[in-house]
Specification:
Blueprint (H helix, E strand, L loop, with lengths): L2 H4 L4 E2 L5 E2 L8 E3 L9 H17 L6 H14 L6 E3 L1 H11 L2 E4 L2 E5 L5 E6 L4 H5 L6 E5 L2 E2 L5 H8 L6 E7 L7 E6 L1 E4 L3 E7 L2 E6 L6 H15 L5 E5 L6 E2 H9 L7 E7 L6 E4 L2 H4 L20 E5 L6 H11 L4 E4 L7 E8 L3 E11 L15 E2 L38 H12 L12 H10 L21
Parallel strand pairs: 3-21, 14-15, 15-19, 19-20, 20-23
Antiparallel strand pairs: 1-16, 2-6, 4-22, 5-12, 6-7, 7-8, 8-9, 8-10, 10-11, 13-14, 17-18, 17-22, 21-22
Helix pairs in contact: 8-10
């Protein structure tokens, strides 16, 4: 087991996207089990139900399977992010935070119809080479229907041993009939940070997910950008569709651009150990021994004009970064309202290799704002395309999930389009578009971010022109 889990790691979760078929969890820490009083009468009732099932059900039921499902249902009923992790799920969690896992290499979400929607195949992954494309809908996995299947179960079917194969039934907008695509599973090494000069003097830095190597990789990319152009005029930090990851990674990314020792995020919950503050110091973001990766960054990055790009797929740890930079007025947040995943989960190992992931706190920006079920509202609202926000306007947010944790303070924000005609218009328009390549010349939001950095007029969203700094209460 990696040092992340030995030292009590904190993880950020985006429920709408699972990178590489791993589940990423939010502000996640590992604690020993706590002794507490047990409801004896209710436990006896549970035992009675188990006994009735074992003696009266039409077919024999294994004790382990029965009790595992009972635990799963009990924990899942609390909120969308509490869960029972069996040995396999717990192992996959550890693998995902290390940036290595065995799978297909796809970023996914759940579609409106309950199918698995491909956000994007990872470059050079098995799915990429097999022809999986952004926007594809997986309807069957090895012949098993996806609709109505819990996302965790669907993910388990796609995971497996390296060298084995999985057959996917895929619906593609441009194809007249469903496609059958067979993909070989293999180890995926995720690269969470990309960077390049997009114009003379202007750089683009993308963080797709927060993992163990993210802070080191980001520092290396920033140093390379500075060597390429020491006279940088502006930086665009791209957090679109970043579902979260390690909280330490989020702290390190924010700390690279904020004053030394600045508070990045705080948490508050029922237990004393859930009330904490996290600062931009090495002990809060370093996961590996050795030199502080931020210590050698050029001082220019503390003052360089910045824009942060976000959208509905920006969740949890990415919202922590955006919220901190927004509170300190260090960067302008451009794009659309984020997912709103602002709760903290604690991992408590149980039994042998299993664990319970339990929501234990909410997290807050440095100014004390709860992001839960609200998200980050952009300072500069800009749609994904010149003529609208595309399918991003129809995506689910935290506030749309059943049993979601309330904000605990400020009002939640209604997010979804209820107009059926507008939904159909967006869906039809999406069928005519090619997949958006972040960082390319066709990236409309990036172009608007560059215009903002240059002090030029920006094309604001037609649906959210009232989203301004004033609405943030700042």
């Amino acid at each position: 087991m990696g040092s992340t889990f030995k030292n009590g790691c904190l993880i950020g979760l985006g429920i709408v996207a699972g990178v590489g078929l791993t589940m990423q969890f939010s502000a996640l820490s590992f604690k020993p089990s706590l002794e507490s009083s047990m409801p004896v009468a209710e436990l006896r009732e549970l035992a009675d139900v188990v006994g009735i099932i074992k003696t009266s059900y039409v077919e024999p039921v294994q004790d382990k399977a029965l009790l595992s499902q009972a635990i799963t249902g009990m924990v899942a009923s609390l909120d969308p992010h509490s869960a029972y992790l069996d040995a396999r799920a717990f192992r996959e969690l550890r693998e995902g935070t290390e940036g290595r896992f065995v799978g297909l290499g796809i970023e996914i979400s759940v579609s409106e119809d309950g199918y698995i929607e491909i956000i994007s195949p990872m470059e050079d992954s098995p799915a990429y080479h097999a022809g999986i494309k952004e926007g594809d809908l997986i309807t069957r996995i090895d012949g098993h229907p996806v609709q109505g299947t819990p996302i965790d179960d669907a993910i388990k079917r796609m995971r497996g041993e390296p060298g084995t194969h999985v057959t996917l039934t895929v619906v593609r907008k441009s194809a007249p009939a469903p496609l059958t695509i067979t993909v070989e599973r293999r180890e995926i090494v995720q690269k969470s940070v990309k960077a390049k000069m997009v114009e003379p003097g202007y750089a683009w830095l993308r963080v797709a997910q927060f993992q163990e190597p993210t802070v080191d990789d980001m520092a290396a990319k920033l140093q390379a950008l500075y060597r390429e152009d020491p006279d940088l005029k502006g930086l665009v930090l791209d957090l679109r569709n970043d579902p979260g990851g390690l909280l330490q990674g989020a702290i390190g990314v924010a700390a690279a651009f904020l004053p030394n020792n600045a508070e990045i995020v705080s948490t508050n919950g029922q237990l004393a150990d859930s009330r904490q503050r996290f600062y931009g110091r090495p002990e809060f973001y370093m996961l590996r021994s050795g030199a502080d990766p931020l210590a050698s960054l050029p001082p220019a990055f503390k003052k360089l004009p910045m824009v942060v790009l976000v959208n509905t797929g920006s969740a949890s740890a990415s919202e922590i970064v955006a919220g901190a930079l927004q509170d300190y007025k260090r960067a302008a947040i451009l794009g659309s309202q984020t997912f709103g995943k602002g709760s903290v989960q604690t991992i408590r190992p149980i039994g042998g290799n299993a664990a319970v992931k339990l929501t234990t706190a909410r997290y807050y920006t440095p100014a004390g704002r709860s992001i839960q079920a609200r998200g980050i509202l952009p300072d500069v609202p800009v749609d994904e395309y010149p003529d609208g926000d595309g399918l991003n306007a129809l995506r689910m947010r935290e506030a749309d999930l059943q049993h979601h944790l309330t904000n605990g303070g400020g009002a939640e924000v209604a997010t979804r389009e209820d107009d059926i005609e507008e939904q159909m218009r967006l869906l039809n328009a999406a069928r005519q578009r090619k997949p958006l390549d972040y960082g390319s010349a066709d990236d409309f939001q990036l172009a608007q971010a560059l215009r903002h950095l240059k002090g030029q007029p920006v094309v604001l969203s037609g649906r959210a022109k009232g989203t301004t700094l004033a609405r943030q209460g700042r």
